Automatic annotation (TrEMBL):
Cited Pfam families: Nucleos_tra2_N
Native species: Lymnaea stagnalis
InterPro entries the UniProt entry points to: C_nuclsd_transpt (IPR008276), CNT_N_dom (IPR002668)
Organism taxonomic ancestry: Eukaryota, Metazoa, Spiralia, Lophotrochozoa, Mollusca
UniProt keyword annotation of Transmembrane present: yes
One Gene Ontology cellular component: plasma membrane
Domain Concentrative nucleoside transporter N-terminal: 93-164
Single annotated GO MF: nucleoside:sodium symporter activity
PANTHER family assigned: SODIUM/NUCLEOSIDE COTRANSPORTER (PTHR10590), SOLUTE CARRIER FAMILY 28 MEMBER 3 (PTHR10590:SF4)
Transmembrane residue ranges: 60-78, 90-107, 113-133, 170-198
Protein name according to UniProt: Concentrative nucleoside transporter N-terminal domain-containing protein
Record keywords, A-Z: Membrane, Transmembrane, Transmembrane helix
């Protein structure tokens, strides 16, 4: 028997194995931490003193991240202005769109400028990650290719069931099977605890940065790689907990993707 560890299949198997180990390890560590915390403080939650320390640490960390992100934004603008000025054509558009939204807002005094700053700042960080780093660009392309390959499986099923001309009635024979296929796979991932792990870890990370709910952040981020309504399907169990404004943001991001 010959084992190969340099092909695409082995890489996927390794990735799934690592993800499973991380999920299981995280559960045990979290359980052990709660037990330790309960023995020390008599409660499984943080005391007010530790809560205050945590809030202080978050405050200083956020301002440190503000400075770092501002530096990256300035560096990217100056670097691209010198090397490729045409890449800055979208910058005035971003400013104009945000200004129009602010003008038509019914409550401009309630706008969270922290979210706006980091929404724009993350785009600059991604541009630095993708445009200035070949490995980052390859990683994004690989991820997008794997997601596209996943959705192509639905197309193969449509061809098998409805024939090669299924795209003549794509809404029924193309889009609907895609939703069913995605919903089935996401149900399986929820059963295995994978989606809960993704929402908890990455959602809370985006929540800390953007100051938006984890579900909002994850749906918008997923819309970058997935079609709008398939991203909604991926996080369907969490949608019922959203407020009207949060649901409006999610639907808007889905239509804009």
């Amino acid at each position: 028997m010959c084992h190969r560890f340099d092909d695409e299949g082995s890489h996927r198997l390794l990735g799934c194995t690592i993800l499973g180990v991380v999920i299981a390890t995280r559960s045990y560590i979290r359980y052990g931490f709660n037990v330790f915390l309960e023995k020390v403080t008599g409660s499984s939650s943080l005391t007010p003193v530790w809560k205050k320390r945590e809030n202080t640490a978050r405050f200083f960390l956020r301002w440190l991240m503000y400075g770092a992100c501002t530096g990256v934004m300035v560096w990217v603008i100056v670097d691209k202005a010198i090397k490729e000025p045409n890449n800055l054509r979208s910058l005035p558009g971003i400013v104009i769109i945000m200004f129009i939204c602010l003008c038509f807002s019914t409550a401009p005094n309630k706008v969270n400028y922290h979210t706006i700053f980091w929404s724009v700042g993350l785009q600059f960080l991604l541009s630095l990650f993708i445009l200035n780093w070949k490995t980052g660009k390859d990683a994004i392309w690989w991820l997008q290719s794997r997601i596209d390959e996943f959705f192509h499986n639905s197309e193969d099923g449509s061809k098998l069931m409805f024939g090669q001309n299924y795209k003549e009635h794509y809404m029924i024979f193309g889009a609907m099977p895609l939703l069913f296929f995605t919903n089935g796979m996401m149900t399986l991932l929820y059963y295995c605890g994978v989606m809960q792990f993704i929402v908890t870890v990455f959602g809370n990370f985006l929540n800390f940065i953007l100051d938006a709910s984890p579900v909002e952040s994850m749906v918008v981020a997923a819309g970058t790689f997935m079609e709008g309504f398939t991203a909604l399907t991926a996080f369907r169990p969490y949608l019922k907990s959203l407020t009207k404004s949060q649901l409006f943001l999610v639907i808007t991001s889905c239509f804009s993707s």
